[in-house]
Amino acid sequence: MDTNDSLRVASLWHSMHAISQQLSPTTGCSEIELLEADTFDLHIFQSLTGTKLFVVCKPGTQHMEALLKVVYELYTDYVLNNPFYETKIPIRCELFDINLTQAIQKDRVALLGR
């Protein structure tokens, strides 16, 4: 996905999340964690600070929650500690990209079950 597609998905997800909280028949329902479609699954991780991370994957892909937690750890280590990063804009941080690629390659079996 390009940047605009990513922003559209995030905007759509934010709206769905807000509506689901109001419509949920279950008391204390706080968030949607997974959207399953015919051609993809959309997983979300929301941190305690409200930061939301998404991953789009093939239907039925396992261990996405663990992957999202690793991504969040890298985000806190490399993006939030970057003095040039501005919140609420797409992440453009070379160290984050490099370490994310390395983490996925290193732990591909553990994270993705492959």
From TrEMBL:
Gene Ontology biological process: endoplasmic reticulum to Golgi vesicle-mediated transport
Cellular component terms (Gene Ontology): endoplasmic reticulum; Golgi apparatus; TRAPP complex
Matching Pfam families: Sybindin (PF04099)
InterPro entries according to UniProt: Longin-like_dom_sf, TRAPPC
Origin superkingdom: Eukaryota
Intracellular or extracellular location(s): Endoplasmic reticulum; Golgi apparatus, cis-Golgi network; Golgi apparatus
CDD domains hit by this protein: TRAPPC4_synbindin
Keywords in alphabetical order: Endoplasmic reticulum, ER-Golgi transport, Golgi apparatus, Transport
Main location: endoplasmic reticulum
PANTHER family, sorted: TRAFFICKING PROTEIN PARTICLE COMPLEX SUBUNIT, TRAFFICKING PROTEIN PARTICLE COMPLEX SUBUNIT 4
Similarity-based family: Belongs to the TRAPP small subunits family. TRAPPC4 subfamily.
Assembly with partners or alone: Part of the multisubunit transport protein particle (TRAPP) complex.
Record-given protein name: Trafficking protein particle complex subunit
Species assigned in the record: Gossypium hirsutum (Upland cotton)
